[in-house]
Amino acid sequence: MDAPVSDENPICSAKGCRVDAVWVLAWNNPKIHTPDRRKTWLACDEHREHLSQFLGVRGFLKDVVTLEEWETGPPPTATS
Length: 80
Ligand SMILES: [Zn+2]
Known about the structure:
Low-confidence stretches: none
Number of strands: 3
Strand content: 15-25%
Largest sheet: 3 strands, antiparallel
Structural class: alpha+beta
Protein name: Acetone carboxylase
Bound molecules: zinc ion
Oligomer: single chain
């Protein structure tokens, strides 16, 4: 396939990285965000560790989920 890359294609947030994102890092800076606010960074497999550490040491990191999970939302809580 040589279709042009769409703007909608989520790309890793790491500086200089153009790889498709696979992970979503949800974070919150309590100094500037309300507690329920979530900022997100996208990460490829290679940069997930680096970016989550960056946020983790600052105490900002809340959640790391796959892009797929993020887009489909939280798993249903119903116990059918
Ligand atoms: Zn990357």
